[in-house]
Amino acid sequence: DIVMTQSPDSLTVSLGERATINCKSSQSVLYSSNNKNALAWYQQKPGQPPKLLINWASTRESGVPDRFSGSESGTDFTLTISSLQAEDVAVYYCQQYLGAPTFGQGTKLEIK
Amino acid sequence: EVQLVESGGGLVQPGGSLRLSCAASGFSFSGYWMHWVRQAPRKGLVWVSGINPDGSYTVYADSVRGRFTISRDNAKNTLYLEMNSLRAEDTAVYYCTRDVRWGPGTMVIVSS
């Protein structure tokens, strides 16, 4: 199984400041058919299903504000929120979907 | 647009059974792996089971192997999860997923 290790477990950031969440896969999640990493980022608010923010490690889903961005370096992945807004308070998860999906443990993002 | 809608959740006693369904639309259902993912209250996302496009190959998490059975009916564009010998620790929201696309989930509560 591919293990996803996400950090930090929780994060407190001031409004307007940058938030950075990291995720590392235990092995490559490169999809050979398109040479892209099968890595997604989700936002989940209480009582709601996960909302897709980013797929293929850096492709923003339609309708997602451009303050959300994804980057990659080998098996290391990063979700960045460039300027935190109040509505961004949530739990964030990374997921690999190369095989049976596996998830990071989640990062709880709060406002300072 | 990809749509996944789960149904069949509810309250069941320990040792009981339940069958979840997931109605899929907006894509060629028979061409995709499908999975079930669950989330226990206040916990993270955990993969449960997956099935290949023609239904000939299934995989399970260790925690449910031998108790849960995944299946699909490609003529009806529907995914199933038969859950037997249910335990309190199976209490969760169950999501039907296709790579990065998710349904809204259906709640299963195992309690006497």
For the termini of chain A, the CA-CA separation is 36 Å
Quaternary structure state of the chains depicted: heterodimer
Percent helix range of chain B: under 10%
Which structural category do the helix and sheet elements of chain B fall into? mainly beta
* Stretches with pLDDT under 50, minimum 5 residues of chain A: none
By DSSP (H or I, 4+ residues per run), the number of helices of chain B equals: 0
Number of strands of chain B: 11
Biggest beta-sheet profile of chain B: 7 strands, mixed
Written account of the structure:
- The complex is a heterodimer of chains A (112) and B (112).
- With 112 residues, chain A is an all-beta fold.
- Chain A is built from no helices and 13 strands.
- In chain A, strands 2, 6, 7, 8, 11, 12 and 13 form a seven-stranded mixed beta sheet that branches. Chain A has a four-stranded antiparallel beta sheet with strand order 1-3-10-9, with no helix packed on it. A two-stranded antiparallel ribbon of chain A has the order 4-5.
- Chain A is globular.
- The N and C termini of chain A lie far apart (36 Å).
- The relative contact order of chain A is 0.33.
- Chain B is mainly beta and 112 residues long.
- Chain B has strands at residues 3-7, 10-12, 18-25, 34-39, 45-51, 58-60, 68-73, 78-83, 92-98, 101-102, 106-110.
- In chain B, the strands form two sheets. In chain B, strands 2, 4, 5, 6, 9, 10 and 11 form a seven-stranded mixed beta sheet that branches. Chain B has a four-stranded antiparallel beta sheet with strand order 1-3-8-7, with no helix packed on it.
- In chain B, a hairpin with a 2-residue loop joins strand 9 and strand 10.
- Chain B is globular, with a radius of gyration of 13 Å.
- The model of chain B has no long low-confidence stretch (mean pLDDT 98).
- Chain A binds chain B through residues 38, 40, 49-50, 52, 55, 93, 95, 97, 100-106, and chain B through 35, 37, 44-47, 50, 59, 93, 95, 97, 99-105.
